[in-house]
Every structure is written in structure tokens, then in C-alpha cells.
Amino acid sequence: MVLMKGSPDPSTSYPTTILAGLSFDDCVSQCFSNDLCVASYGNNKSVCYLYLMGDISKIKTDNTSDDKIGMKMQKTCTTCPLTVSDLLEGVDNSFDANVTSSYQILTKETPGYYRINYSNL
Questions:
Q1: PAN-3 domain location, by residue (predicted)?
Q2: pTM exceeds 0.85, yes or no
């Protein structure tokens, strides 16, 4: 999981699960243990939002916010990237699902946002 400050864009993202009373760390763990979860989102209100494949399309990045998002990544790095964008950009994350087979996070299209591009079988 890659953790960063930001939030799902509410006009393009709809959580599958909302859990009250969870810390952000527990929220990230919930997503990590769910094979189809791609992102977890939390804020200082102890509410956890889980997004499955296709439920989240755009992430607003904001380094000044208390909002945090965790993105599931299937990448092993041999060196530490300098920025989150360098870590996320264009990595193919494959999943064994009925409709969606993989997704990529595109960080360079719109300043202040990351876009998630899903690929179908």
C-alpha cells in the first residue's frame, strides 16, 4: 500500500464500504486484506471508506490536508523513488476479477489529481 495525503474526487468515486470507528491504519489493513480493494480513505473523523476496482477514478492530492488515502500497488522497488508520483505512475496492477483485469495510476495528466485507468478483460 502506498499512503499519501489526499482524497477521492467525490464526483468520480463511490465507496463500496463505509466503516465507522476505525483508525486510518486499520482502514488500510481492511483494504490490504480484500483482494478487490484498490484504495482506502480516512480522515480525522475515524471513518473508513473502501473502494473496490472501478469505484474510484480520480484522487485529489493535497499535502496540507488531514485526509489520507492508501493505494494498493503491486510493485517492488529496487530504489526508493523521490516522489509518490514516481512510485505510482504507470504501474500495471493486475487482478483476477470477472470484469476488470488491471489498473494504472496516471499522475501527470491534471495537476493536483491522479487518475486511475482501468483495463477490461
A1: 1-103
A2: no
Cβ neighbours of residue 14 closer than 8 Å, sequence gap 6 or more? 51, 55, 56
Residues 15-63: tens digit of each pLDDT = 999 999 999 999 999 999 998 898 999 987 889 999 988 888 898 988 8
- Asked if CATH classification 3.50.4.10 holds for the domain at 2-120, the reply, yes or no, is yes
Is the distance from CB of 81 to CB of 98 less than 8 angstroms?
no
Which parts of 21-112 are beta strand (E)? Answer: 37-42, 47-52, 58-61, 68-71, 93-94, 100-106
Residue 98, helix vs strand vs coil? coil
Tell me if 59 sits within 8 A of 69, measured CB to CB: yes
Q: Which residues of 53-92 are buried (b: 16+ CB within 10 A; e: fewer)?
A: bbbbbbbbbeeeeebbbbbbeeeeeeeeeeebeebbeebe
